Amino acid sequence: MLKLPGLIDPHVHVREPGATHKEDWDTVTQAALAGGVTTILAMPNTKPPIFDEATLNLALDAAKAKARCDYGQYIGAGPDNGDWDKREALSLQAAGLKMYLDSTFGELRLDDMSLWTPHFQKFPKDSPMVMHSESRTMAAAILFSTIYDHPVHIAHVSLKEEILLIKAAKEKGIKVTCEVCPHHLFLDKDLTGFKNLSGLTSGRTEVRPRLATPEDVQSLWINLDVIDCFATDHAPHTLEEKDSDNPPPGFPGLETMLPLLLTAVDEGRLTINHLIEKLHTNPKRIFNLPDQPETWVEVDENASYEIKASETFTRCGWTPFEGWQVKGKVRKVVLRGKTAFEDGKILAEPGCGKNIRS
Ligand code: NCD
Ligand code: ZN
């Protein structure tokens, strides 16, 4: 039996408010616990998007009533809410500021670079700023971070050119950190990794950033030391939506991240120390998270099993990793002294999760 600290996932789409047929604060935190995750940071691209006091409270009230693990809620950067100097208390209630600098699913988007400036200037210096920025936009975000002297965290890095630029920026002493998602480590645009190709609609391969080339995937593995965090970008949509004519991008990921990574450890591609560093130590530091006393995850590192969506807790009902044979099963999760998950059963009650900023 392997004992890990409570894992932290800094990139989760909860879907509440607004799209609870995909997921809500109850189901997403059940999925988190089943995956060994005891803290999630929730993205603001909900309906309505989270961008001011009223909408932040909408999300936090739902979380308070329903969450079964600890949580934080990001606030989104919009065209009109860059005056953080006038609303410092509000900014400190959020997990951090999420900036969508590229096209995305939802309404929060900053198409014009002049809209970035007030956020970089006025968001509190010690509070995390997370960028959805791909390729050249990422380079621009790193430049903004140096000009305005605010550290940035780059979400879901997927390309070789991106990881190499972050490596070079870190070597220059620029305060940039980054995360990589399991689907960008284990799947690629040639559909390597998808098991049932005959039943695969194009919608089920849609995710942002898109699945990349095998060379990009390889570069992420080669540059593991540049990766600060693993994050799921858990983005649940129903199969009906994914198989429709206009499929939304996104994969669920909370319940598959740890078994996939433990399988990579078993194969010698990764170490347990990498896991602890990128799923606990680094995200805890980068996002200024409080201690979770008496919290741990027990994993049977020798248990092999097949990933089946029918056995998951997420409401979306599917996974791109269907049929994968993995080694490493979460047996038990203890959160602040109480058993929250054991042998496939959720024991934590709705509402027992704590806001990491309260
Ligand atoms: C995200 C979602 O579904 O909310 N989808 C995704 O593919 N990652 C939105 C986004 O990050 O663009
Ligand atoms: Zn996302």
Would you kindly provide a written description of the structure presented here, covering whatever features stand out?
Helix content is 29%, strand content 19%. It has one domain: TIM Barrel, CATH 3.20.20.140. The mean pLDDT is 96. The protein has a 6-stranded parallel beta sheet. A 5-stranded antiparallel beta sheet has the order 1-11-12-13-14, with helices on one face. It has a 3-stranded parallel beta sheet with strand order 2-3-4. It is α/β, with parallel strands linked by helices and 358 residues long. The longest helix has 15 residues. The two termini are 34 Å apart. Bound molecules: N-carbamoyl-L-aspartate (NCD) and zinc ion. The site of N-carbamoyl-L-aspartate (NCD) has 12 residues, from loops.
Oligomeric grouping of the chains: single chain
Shape: globular
The biggest beta sheet reads: 6 strands, parallel
Distance between the termini: 34 Å
At the first level of CATH, what is the class?
Answer: Alpha Beta
What is the name of the CATH architecture?
Alpha-Beta Barrel
Number of strands: 14
CATH level 3 topology: TIM Barrel
The helix/strand series, from N terminus to C terminus, equals EEHEHEEHEHEHEHEHHEHHHEEEE
Helix percentage: 25-40%
